[in-house]
Amino acid sequence: MDKGIIYFEEPGAANTDETVRAAVERASELGIKHIVVASTTGSTGIAVAKAAEGTDIETIVVTLHYGARGAEKWLVDDSNLKTLQEMGARVFTQTHALSGVERSFSDKLGGASRIETIAAVLRSLFGIGFKVAVEITIMAADSGMIPVGNDSEIIAIGGTQTGADVACVIRPGHANSFFDMQVREIIAMPRVK
Predict the structure, then answer these.
(1) CA-to-CA distance for 38 and 166, rounded, in angstroms?
(2) What is the CATH number of domain 10-98+126-190?
């Protein structure tokens, strides 16, 4: 198979439209039925849901957990949530798979856990959006939002700060079967981390 990868010169929200377009196009080519997308306020989720309109691709939006940015609230915009629901997208949140309780120990006592080490390696080698794509895949699998198994593939979309700049084809796995996951294709990613 000969398939190109989109490389962005810089990470960030400016790459959202091209990342989303390429992800939906690749999902259609491969017959993938689920796109999992990270979205803090819901805006990037809406972009994916709009791009997937008229297909049989389901948009699954993973948000930051309550209190993730210090405030004891959910950061999804109410109007965006309503729009996503009207478009048939599924929206959920849960503890982040690659930090969770471990981060509170590191923040309080110092050091790093194995989980945080996995996150740091993904961020360092592949970038923040890539780490996010892997993490939200685990979260979606653990929430029962996507099928998991040898023949299952989804597309995961992550970003650096806001928007989207990474899209990957992933064979999902649960948190307790992390090493069964496979990143099978990189659709788009920034060259500079």
Answers:
(1) 10
(2) 3.40.1380.20
